[in-house]
C-alpha cells in the first residue's frame, strides 16, 4: 500500500502541536526539511519531485522552476503567510495547482502590533527604553506627541494606506484613544463608496471614515499605517514626497511589506524631523538588515524583525490552517483558505 | 510698590510656553532654580524664606523643615504631579497652607503608556527591538501570548490594582482588543458596589466589571495593571505571593509608583517564568536604577524612565495647571485643582 501514499514536502517543522496532523496520516509520505533554518533551495527542488503537495514559508519562491521540479502530480502549494508575493500565481493557475494561504487568522495579532508601534514611535522607546541610568529628568524630557486626544488637542486622524481587514481592526483599537477621523486610500480600480464609509463610521461610532488621495492622507493624519499588499503597484508608495507632506508631530507605522516604504527617504525624514517617529516591522531587503542600516541608525525609529503575526495563538492558528489547506488540496477536498475562492 | 510683591519660589523652569504666566505678573517676585536638574535642597530652604507660594516637582520633599523655612507668609504649595507622597499633608493642614496637584490632565497619557507596556511585554520588545541583524526566523520564534483575544482563545481579563480614572481609561482602550472581563481591587475602607460595576460594564459594553480580592485578581487576569497610589498601604502589594499566582501567559504593567512592586520578586518571577513579561515605568528607588538593577537584567522586562505623563500636550497641561494652582493659592482665589476640595 506504500505506493499509493501521497508525498508532501514541508519546508519547516511546525512543532509538536501541528506536525502530527501530517505525520499521523497513514495516506501521506511526509518529507520535512530537517533544520531550524530556511529551507535550502537545492534540497527543496530535489525533494519536490513527485510531490502532491508542498508547504512553504514566505522565504520559499514558488515559481516555474519549483513547479517543474515537482512535476505533474502536484495538486497544491500551501503557504504559511497571508502575503503571496513569493508565488507565481499565473504559473500555478496554468498547471491547475491550487494555492492556500492564511488570511484572517493573523488580523488581530498584526492590528495589536500596529497600535503598539504607533505608541512606541510617539513615546520614542528607541531612546526611553535605554535611558537608565544616565538621564536628567526635566519637565519636558522625553516628550513627544500624544497618541490620545487631549482637551487642548482634541482632533486625532488615522490614515491607512490600504484599508482591508487588518487596517479596520487597527482603527477599531484606536477609537478609544480619541481617533474620530479615519482616512484611507483605495484601490484605483474601484470607485469610492460613501455609503459603505458612512456605515463603517456608524459601526465605530466616529465622525468620519473617508477615502482620500494619498496627498491628503499624508497631510491630515496624526498616525499613518501602511497596510497594503506588496508588489510593483505599491513599491515605495511612501517616498520622500509623501514624507515631506506629513505633520511634524505624526508617526508612521509599517506592518505590511518593506517594499512600500523608501527606507532612505524615511531615514532622512527622521533625521530632519519631517515627522516625529516611525515604528516598522518590515524592511525592504529583510532579512539583510545590519546595524548600519539607515533605519536602524535613524532617530525615533523602532525596527522589529517582522513579528506581526508572532504570537503563540496566531502562529498556531496559521500553522494549523496551512496544514489543513495542504490536506484539502492533496486529497481533492475543500481548502479552508484557497486563494481565488475564499472571499 | 516692590515691597507689596508676593514671593514665589519655582523649583524648575517650566519653559517658554508657561513661565511668562508667572514672570509677566507684576504682583509677583519670582525666584527660579536656575539649573536643568533637580532643585538643591539647600537652595530651596534658603530661597523659601518669606515665600507666599512654592512650586515643586515630585523630587522636592514638602515637610516640616521646608514649611518652617518658608515661614508664616506661605499660603500654597503647588506640585507638578498627580501623586503627593512627597508632601506631608498633615503639616500643610496644620499651618493652613493650601496644596495644589495635577489630576485628570495626565489620565490619557498614562493610559496610553499602560496599553503600550502591556503590548511591549507580550511582544517581548526587550529582545525583538534588538533582534537585527542576528536571528533565525522560525514559525514560533519570538512568540509570546497575544494581547487580543482569538477564536481559539476567546477570553481576556484585565486586572486593575486600584481602579481610578487612569485604570478606567486604560480599560476603555482594551475593550476593542477583546477584553470582556474587568477585575479590580477596591479600597478596604469602602464597600463593594455591584450596581456601579454593572453600570460601568454597560458603559463599556463588556460582560463583567467586578471588585475582587487580590488573590483572585492575580489568578484570573491576562494583564495586571498596577494603578494605585504609593505609600505604606500599598507597599509591595505585588510581592512573591502575588506573582506566583499569576498565569504563566500573563503580563504585569506598573505605571503608578515603584513601591507597589517588589523588584526582586518580579525579577525572580521573570527568570523563572511565573508570568510571561512585564512593562514598568516606575521602579522602587528611582532614579537610582543602574544597569545592574535586577529588573534591567530580567528577561522580557521593559523598564521606562517614568514617562507616564511625558507627552508635549500633557506636560504643557500639567505645567499650566501647576502655575494656575500656585496663582490661585497666592492670591487667595480658587485653585483649579486643590487637594481636599477638588473631587
UniProtKB/TrEMBL annotation, chains A, B:
Which CDD domains would you find in this protein's record?
Answer: GDH (cd05301)
InterPro entries per the record?
D-isomer_2-hydroxyacid_DH, D-isomer_2_OHA_DH_cat_dom, D-isomer_DH_CS, D-isomer_DH_NAD-bd, NAD(P)-bd_dom_sf
Q: Give the family, as the similarity comment puts it.
A: Belongs to the D-isomer specific 2-hydroxyacid dehydrogenase family.
PROSITE patterns attached to this UniProt entry: D_2_HYDROXYACID_DH_3
- Looking at the record's lineage, which domain of life comes first? Eukaryota
Q: Which SUPFAM superfamilies match?
A: Formate/glycerate dehydrogenase catalytic domain-like, NAD(P)-binding Rossmann-fold domains
Q: Please give the name of this protein.
A: Glyoxylate reductase
Q: Does the keyword Transport apply?
A: no
Amino acid at each position: 500500500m506504500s505506493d499509493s501514499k501521497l508525498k508532501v514536502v514541508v519546508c519547516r517543522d511546525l512543532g509538536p502541536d501541528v506536525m502530527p496532523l501530517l505525520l499521523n496520516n497513514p495516506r501521506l509520505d511526509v518529507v520535512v526539511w530537517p533544520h531550524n533554518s530556511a529551507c535550502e533551495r537545492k534540497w527543496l527542488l530535489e525533494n519536490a519531485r513527485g510531490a502532491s503537495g508542498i508547504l512553504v514559508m514566505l522565504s520559499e519562491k514558488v515559481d516555474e522552476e519549483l513547479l517543474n521540479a515537482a512535476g505533474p502530480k502536484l495538486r497544491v502549494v500551501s503557504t504559511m503567510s497571508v502575503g503571496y508575493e513569493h508565488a507565481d500565481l499565473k504559473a500555478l493557475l496554468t498547471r491547475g495547482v491550487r494555492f492556500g494561504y492564511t488570511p484572517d487568522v493573523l488580523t488581530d495579532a498584526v492590528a495589536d502590533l500596529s497600535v503598539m508601534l504607533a505608541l512606541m514611535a510617539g513615546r520614542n522607546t528607541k531612546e526611553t527604553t535605554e535611558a537608565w541610568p544616565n538621564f536628567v529628568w526635566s519637565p519636558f524630557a522625553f516628550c513627544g506627541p500624544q497618541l490620545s486626544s487631549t482637551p487642548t488637542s482634541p482632533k486625532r486622524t488615522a490614515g491607512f494606506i490600504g484599508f482591508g481587514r487588518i487596517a479596520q481592526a487597527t482603527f477599531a483599537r484606536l477609537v478609544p484613544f480619541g481617533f474620530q477621523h479615519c482616512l484611507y486610500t483605495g484601490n484605483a480600480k474601484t470607485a469610492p463608496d460613501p455609503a459603505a464609509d458612512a456605515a463603517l463610521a456608524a459601526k465605530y461610532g466616529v465622525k468620519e471614515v473617508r477615502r482620500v488621495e494619498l496627498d491628503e492622507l499624508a497631510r491630515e493624519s496624526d498616525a499613518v499605517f501602511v497596510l497594503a499588499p506588496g508588489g510593483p503597484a505599491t513599491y515605495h508608495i511612501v517616498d520622500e514626497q509623501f514624507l515631506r507632506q506629513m505633520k511634524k508631530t505624526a508617526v508612521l507605522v509599517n506592518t505590511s511589506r518593506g517594499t512600500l516604504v523608501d527606507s532612505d527617504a524615511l531615514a532622512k525624514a527622521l533625521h530632519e524631523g519631517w515627522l516625529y517617529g516611525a515604528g516598522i516591522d518590515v524592511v525592504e531587503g529583510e532579512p539583510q538588515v545590519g546595524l548600519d542600516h539607515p533605519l536602524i541608525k535613524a532617530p525615533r525609529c523602532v525596527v522589529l524583525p517582522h513579528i506581526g503575526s508572532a504570537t503563540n495563538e496566531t502562529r498556531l492558528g496559521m500553522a494549523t490552517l496551512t496544514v489543513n489547506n495542504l490536506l484539502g488540496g492533496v486529497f481533492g477536498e475543500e481548502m479552508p483558505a484557497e486563494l481565488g475562492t475564499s472571499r
